[in-house]
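Postdoc handover notes: sequence design on the structure in folder B. Input tokens:
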């Protein structure tokens, strides 16, 4: 079975599965990206704050793949919000990446206390018009913030990258995304391993002959989310890509749905204003 593709609300296509670069040391980012792309991934998720955009871009170039074959994401950090600053930050990211454009540019966090995310969203619209990126989206936005940027600009983000894992499933936000044609992209999809031993996950893994991590990543795909697990191990990268020769049954999906406790691994976007 081949990898699946999602069509974004701007008409562009995006691989549903990718790999993430948070906490990947700058010194090994290039080789991690090359190894991920050679293994078969076609989407690589980075951010200015990860401090490894140079390696991200170098890896894309060194992979030998045509630029159009790889979907590259980066994000504007909190301290760079505001119209002019965000545009300059987008340009600086491209310089560090050594790429003429990214496929997807995101606002990393809304940082509500700053109240600059609307201006920043307008900068992303301008960045897309200027060709710095092909698609634009957000990360860690909640429903009222999405309503506000859409209402003020008429431009709907192609996706919202948010924390989703079996203990934090965010059903209301996902339903809102679906109504507005916004793709949900899951960060910390493995949830720090806190559901690896859950009976629902273990039973599905045993039945399918897969690992708990593979069952959880397959659950993300089957709820329609894009998912971007991270591994710095070649075996981890390969394992997390090997999701397309099995499916979870409706009963297995329901058993994983029942694991939701609304518990975050990461910060609460409502009051995360760092940077
Ligand atoms: P993940 O849920 O992808 O988990 C990564 C951890 O799980 C690592 O410790 C990794 O260790 C381990 N792991 C990976 N694969 C397996 C496996 N098959 N079995 C067992 N353990 C495994 O967490 P992240 O927090 O990195 O989230 C993924 C990506 O999402 C980030 O890299 C980043 O791109 C993005 N993100 C975005 C955020 C945002 O605010 N927008 C916030 C956080 C993340 P090892 O390397 O040893 O395999």
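Designed sequence:
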């Amino acid at each position: 079975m081949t990898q699946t593709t999602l069509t974004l609300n701007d008409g562009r296509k995006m691989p549903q599965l990718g790999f993430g670069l948070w906490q990947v040391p700058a010194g090994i980012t290039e080789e991690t990206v090359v190894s991920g792309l050679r293994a078969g991934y076609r989407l690589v998720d980075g951010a200015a704050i990860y401090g490894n955009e140079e390696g991200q871009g170098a890896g894309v170039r060194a992979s030998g793949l045509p630029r159009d074959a790889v979907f590259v994401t980066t994000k504007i950090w909190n301290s760079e919000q505001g119209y002019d600053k965000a545009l300059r930050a987008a340009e600086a990211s491209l310089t560090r990446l050594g790429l003429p454009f990214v496929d997807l540019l995101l606002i990393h966090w809304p940082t509500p206390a700053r109240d600059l995310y609307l201006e920043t969203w307008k900068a992303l619209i301008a960045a897309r018009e200027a060709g710095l990126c092909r698609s634009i989206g957000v990360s860690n936005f909640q429903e009222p913030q999405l309503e506000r940027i859409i209402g003020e600009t008429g431009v709907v983000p192609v996706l919202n990258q948010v924390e989703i894992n079996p203990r934090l499933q965010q059903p209301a936000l996902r339903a809102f995304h679906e109504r507005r044609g916004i793709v949900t992209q899951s960060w910390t999809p493995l949830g720090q391993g806190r559901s690896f031993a859950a009976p629902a996950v273990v039973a599905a893994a045993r039945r399918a002959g897969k690992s708990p991590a593979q069952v959880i990543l397959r659950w993300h795909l089957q709820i329609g989310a894009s998912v971007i697990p991270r591994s710095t191990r070649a075996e981890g990268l390969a394992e997390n890509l090997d999701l397309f020769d099995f499916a979870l049954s409706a009963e297995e999906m329901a058993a994983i749905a029942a694991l939701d406790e609304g518990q975050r691994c990461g910060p609460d976007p409502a009051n995360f204003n760092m940077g």
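Context for whoever picks this up: Residues 20-22, 45, 108, 139-140, 161, 187-190, 211, 213, 228-233, 236, 239-240, 266 surround NDP (CB under 6 Å). Don't rerun without checking with the PI first.
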